[in-house]
Design a protein that fits this description.
By secondary structure, the protein is mainly α. It is built from three helices and no strands.
């Protein structure tokens, strides 16, 4: 399988930012993982690999799961710095 391109990797923080905007617009936090996966698949199928279904499916999964992990890790770090428990 081809390596992840720079464009694919840079989409991870973009997805986190978009999810944060959705959350601040009223999306319940429990739907953030679903939103991350949906946007990961969207960008993979329409931007990164529109002509290869299998590659887009894999890249979308990686994008979505990576953005969920980055979101969760950032949230945990901020909570730890502030001295709060999640």
């Amino acid at each position: 399988m081809d390596q992840f391109t720079v464009y694919g990797i840079t989409l991870v923080p973009v997805l986190v930012g978009l999810n944060e905007l959705l959350k601040r617009s009223g999306l319940p936090a429990r739907f953030v993982p679903l939103s991350s996966m949906a946007m990961g698949y969207f960008f993979a199928f329409y931007y990164l690999s529109p002509d290869d279904f299998k590659r887009a499916l894999m890249m979308g999964t990686v994008l979505g799961l990576s953005s969920i992990g980055l979101f969760s890790g950032t949230r945990s770090t901020i909570a730890g710095v502030r001295g709060k428990k999640l």
